[in-house]
Design brief:
The chain has 147 residues and is mainly α. It is 83% helix and 0% strand. The protein has a domain of 98 residues. The protein is built from 8 helices and no strands. The relative contact order is 0.12.
Length: 147
């Protein structure tokens, strides 16, 4: 009988603590998990990696200037704050926790090390497609003369 009550108490405690942890979705818990995520994927390192990989697509004489502009000229603190605020606004605590857990794991870190190369590969196509869409939009707009 005591063993059964003990098991019931343990199961109740485990279930209730899981429910409490899952139910806590406040700006404070979101901020905590967003900060954990940003520790796992520091914005400065991300921008440095992306800039390095994207610079490879530029003429050699423009690479260093581009990398400098993408890293030293960026206000990383302002970007980090904007990223944190946006994550708190758009993601739940549970989602942010999952992101922090994944990107803090070995496989997540491995994936992030490849992110700069991925962005560098798709950026020329993305830019070209945006330019084509803009050109089509400009052609479809009626000419407006100044008044």
């Amino acid at each position: 009988m005591q063993k059964g009550i003990f098991v019931l108490v343990v199961l109740t405690l485990c279930t209730s603590s899981t429910f409490v942890l899952a139910a806590a979705d406040t700006p404070e818990t979101r901020r905590h998990e967003a900060e954990r995520y940003l520790q796992a994927t520091p914005p400065k390192a991300l921008f440095e990696d992306i800039a390095d990989k994207m610079a490879a697509n530029l003429p050699p004489d423009q690479r260093e200037q581009f990398k400098r502009m993408m890293t030293s000229e960026l206000d990383i603190a302002a970007l980090t704050k904007a990223m944190t605020d946006a994550m708190i606004k758009h993601f739940t605590t549970e989602e942010l926790k999952a992101l922090a857990d994944f990107y803090g794991s070995a496989v997540g870190k491995s994936a992030m090390q490849k992110f700069g190369a991925y962005m560098a590969d798709i950026m020329p196509t993305m830019q070209a497609e945006i330019m084509k869409a803009q050109a089509k939009l400009n052609q479809s707009l009626p000419n407006q003369s100044p008044r």
